[in-house]
Amino acid sequence: MARLEIVAGEARQERRTYLTREFDPDPLVRTVFRLRNDLIMIGGAAAEPLPHVITARLRDPLASVSDAAQLFLRKAGEALLARRNPPALGEVERTLQDFITTVEALRREGATRALSADAVGRIFALGFALEQLRRNFEELGDRVTECARDDMAG
């Protein structure tokens, strides 16, 4: 993250020095920091193990979210470097919906009633953090689009 800030500062200085219309890195840096915070929140929610009945049901949906998120980030990075439009969020959104559906099913079945308030709170914190991640992926897509547009305009 420190290296990203250094590179962004150099780009900012170059924009001022040469008065270019080159892509402004600051919004991208802010988005990357928000994504980092999302991952910290997800890690915090998952730090303590949940009861087996819950983890057994959430393991596959969470693995799918993780795979889709990693693929989206990789493709977004490639698009950014190539100054192309961002990848679609469809798979990330689908896997997040699967996770939400699974949590709702656990609630309807009463599987969360026997959990401690802390465990229930971590499940909902995880859901909240994943929704924030999705929103920040949308924002990342917007930043990648801006970068691609600036390249086409230049």
What characteristics describe this protein?
0% strand; single chain; 154 residues
Report the span from N to C terminus. Answer: 28 Å
The total of beta strands comes to 0
Q: What does the largest sheet look like?
A: none
Please give the domain count: 1
Per DSSP, the total helix count is 5
Which ranges are low-confidence, i.e. pLDDT below 50, for 5 or more consecutive residues?
A: none
Strand content: under 5%
- Please estimate the helix content: over 70%
Give the CA-based shape: elongated
- What number is the mean pLDDT? 87
Radius of gyration: 19 Å
Order of SSEs, N→C?
Answer: HHHHH
SS-derived structural category: mainly alpha
Q: How is this structure best described in words?
A:
The protein has 5 helices and no strands. The two termini are 28 Å apart. The protein has one domain (2-153). With 154 residues, it is an all-alpha fold. The chain has helices spanning 2-18, 26-45, 52-82, 90-108, 117-153.
